[in-house]
Amino acid sequence: MIDTLFLLPRDGLRYLIATDAGTSGTIKFRRSDSDGLVLISYLRNSTAGFQLQLDPRSHPLNTGLPGGDGFWFRVPAELHGLWYEITRRGEHVGVSFDAFAARLPKQLMDPGALGYFALTYAPDADKPPYDEAPVPRLAAWRVTRKAVFGASVAVEPEPIGITQLEPYWPVTDLASVTVMVVGVGSIGGAAATALAGYGLGRLLLVDPDRLLWHNLIRHVLPRRYIGKFKVDALRDYLADRHGDTEIAAFRYDVVNDADLIRALLQETSIILCCTDGVAPRRASSHLARRAGKPAILACVLADGGIGEVIRLRPWPDHGCLLCRRQALTNEGTLDPEPALEAGYGTGTLHHPMTAVGSDLFLIGNLAAKITVSTALEAAGHFAHRLPSEHLTVGLQACRGWTGPFDLGYTGNVRWAPATPPRADCPTCGQP
Ligand SMILES: [Zn+2]
């Protein structure tokens, strides 16, 4: 048998400790027997009755089996001292009905053959002499004629969010950063999730596509979002998980809607491009450069063999994506980018899937880390400086590549510096 846990939504605690709450009242429950869970779903104090719900509203217990009626009492801490003694000895150990009833502010109703639940609130449980032991202020009880048994209550805390990581994580500085994520497929979806987890202030999600069945094995979004626009679904999904990050969704195509993107870039700190086509990556590089904003481009090359994250900062001696690729070609390295035109595949005969989802997530997470580090370095957090600008990661050993793609082993990483702009570059040159 599993221990029963009672859940009290935070509103319930407020109604219980209110100065005009009185010393007793009634409660109702919803329960899930297979989980050993009981939700306190209604509480009546001396002023009124209140429905209580778990956050989010979709929590299954909110519509769980009705669990009957019970009572709550304000009690002396001594009763919770008893609760501590009996629960420590196991759930089969109880106190007698009379011993329990004697410590209540009001006569206890006969539990009959079935028994009922009670909730007790001991405001002085954290004061001497009870402050030495973990005596709780709230306790639950199963009241039967034979004995009264204790159970634990977990109270929903006030939301405190990511600020509780201060000062170990620079939450305040990241709260003012806006990142535009272009492409929220497998890599971009993972990157956006990671960025929200880092406590970024604002995310602008840009992608014109819908979530379809073939996406599912390599996407952070679950099945219930099938058919929705990826940006809308990801916004809702992340709002559920990371309430600290403000998220805006745009069903734009970075190539066809370049004017709209240009306008959005005014309010963007960094652009993170995670699309797998050549044209959107070039467009992102170009638009970011012209807007004077850093761009991070993440992709997986060589049929899933190599992960790559390039950081393009709009500095006079740092070239754009095309300049970087041209410099590699001049050094004798094959440009891996055109193969990206085939993307990571849809699983059809003509378009087989190459990279596995978790490898794409790995690169998405790295891209998010590099994006956040770029923002933190700009804010003066030099502990977050990156070694260089162009990261390649071995996902599988690939033959026939030259530097910086000749990684040799799974797990090898290499950082290469930026290369200067070409004299005739239409992106890096004066407009
Ligand atoms: Zn250039």
UniProtKB/TrEMBL annotation:
InterPro entries: ThiF/MoeB/HesA, ThiF_NAD_FAD-bd, Ubiquitin-activating_enz. Keywords: Nucleotidyltransferase, Transferase. GO terms for molecular function: nucleotidyltransferase activity. The keyword Metal-binding does not apply. Coiled coil: none annotated. Residues 173-328 form the THIF-type NAD/FAD binding fold domain. The keyword rRNA-binding does not apply. Pfam families: ThiF. PANTHER family: TRNA THREONYLCARBAMOYLADENOSINE DEHYDRATASE. This is ThiF family adenylyltransferase. The lineage of its organism: Bacteria, Bacillati, Actinomycetota, Actinomycetes, Streptosporangiales.
